[in-house]
């Protein structure tokens, strides 16, 4: 059987770079920070001691550089799990597929991928401007059912409890759940809340927000806030984490998602300076990541 990956499946541009990211294999570090907002890439790389390269194609901005001896790439994903499908597959291809032969390399590389994002809290006790590390990503979008993956027994039990407690309208989401990379999570303890992060396929109705559209499931937020299983609680909502954790599982990468809380949906508050909260998360996060 021909194991060569065809030109239509892995698209490499005239620069020898992968299609959407426009990054070549030698231009990517093995520790990667993902951010949603393309403008946030510079807010991270301005802390680098040296910047090696900068690329931009569509919403995907990539800066690679160093903090001390630690080589780090920061990549913007834009919003949503559909973009995570693109970014995680292309990051993986950059390290695990030989761009000359188009064959999967015999020795695979596991990347460390850490999301520094923003999020809305689902517990009254998690204030705006605080930080949450996602013990699990629980997807209410529909990316991961397209992939074959394995869940651990603990993940299956937690997902089962979720299905039992949280009503999802028929024909809606087919929830999936993945744990964070434990060895990365261990570095993010002091000064972080920890809990399950729910990943939604939208910002408004999929996160229970009403402007002019009417919700099909008005109890979603109450249901999520009230969920509990053993020591696990749902802490927050956002739009990428479950796909990062899920694609990390499928492709063999170590992933962690950390968020600055810019909204508290229970208290109905929004940060007075979300930019400052994100800047503080970047500084704290980089201090930890540089030492991992
Ligand atoms: C929505 O405003 C966006 O903010 C959050 C959500 O996940 C979504 O991408 O993360 P980022 O600030 O990292 O983009
Ligand atoms: N990002 C989200 O997806 N939701 C929020 O409430 C805040 C940031």
UniProtKB/TrEMBL annotation:
- GO molecular function list: purine-nucleoside phosphorylase activity; uridine phosphorylase activity
Task: Look up the record and give one Gene Ontology term from the biological process aspect.
Answer: purine nucleoside catabolic process
One of its Pfam families is: PNP_UDP_1
Q: Which reaction does it catalyse?
A: uridine + phosphate = alpha-D-ribose 1-phosphate + uracil
* Enzyme class at the top of the EC tree: transferase
Q: Domain (Nucleoside phosphorylase): give its ranges.
A: 32-263
Superkingdom of the source species:
Bacteria
**Where in this chain does the entry annotate a coiled-coil region?**
none
Q: What is its EC number?
A: 2.4.2.3
Q: Name a GO CC annotation attached to this entry.
A: cytosol
Note the PANTHER family from the entry: FI09636P-RELATED, URIDINE PHOSPHORYLASE
What name appears for this protein in its UniProt entry?
Uridine phosphorylase
């Amino acid at each position: 059987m021909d194991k060569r990956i065809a030109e239509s499946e892995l698209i490499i541009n005239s620069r020898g770079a992968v299609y959407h990211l426009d990054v070549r294999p030698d231009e990517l570090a093995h520790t990667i920070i993902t951010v949603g907002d393309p403008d946030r890439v510079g807010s991270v790389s301005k802390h680098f001691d040296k910047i090696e390269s900068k690329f931009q194609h569509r919403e995907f901005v990539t800066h690679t550089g160093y903090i001390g001896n630690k080589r780090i790439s920061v990549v913007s994903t834009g919003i949503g799990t559909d973009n995570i499908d693109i970014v995680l597959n292309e990051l993986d291809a950059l390290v695990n597929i030989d761009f000359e032969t188009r064959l999967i390399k015999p020795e695979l590389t596991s990347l460390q991928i850490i999301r520094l994002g923003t999020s809305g809290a689902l517990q009254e006790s998690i204030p705006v401007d605080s930080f949450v590390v996602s013990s699990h990503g629980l997807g209410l979008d529909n990316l991961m059912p397209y992939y074959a993956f394995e869940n651990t027994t603990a993940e299956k039990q937690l997902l089962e409890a979720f299905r039992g407690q949280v009503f999802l309208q028929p024909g809606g989401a087919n929830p999936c759940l993945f744990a964070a990379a434990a060895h990365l999570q261990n570095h993010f303890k002091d000064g972080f809340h920890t809990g399950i992060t729910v990943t939604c396929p939208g910002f408004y109705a999929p996160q229970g927000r009403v402007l002019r559209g009417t919700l099909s499931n008005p109890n979603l937020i109450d249901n999520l806030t009230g969920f509990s299983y053993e020591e696990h609680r749902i802490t927050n909502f956002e739009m990428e984490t479950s796909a990062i954790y899920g694609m990390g599982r499928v492709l063999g990468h170590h992933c962690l998602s950390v968020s600055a809380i810019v909204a508290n949906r229970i208290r109905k508050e929004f940060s007075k300076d979300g930019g400052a909260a994100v800047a503080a998360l970047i500084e704290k996060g980089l201090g930890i990541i540089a030492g991992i």
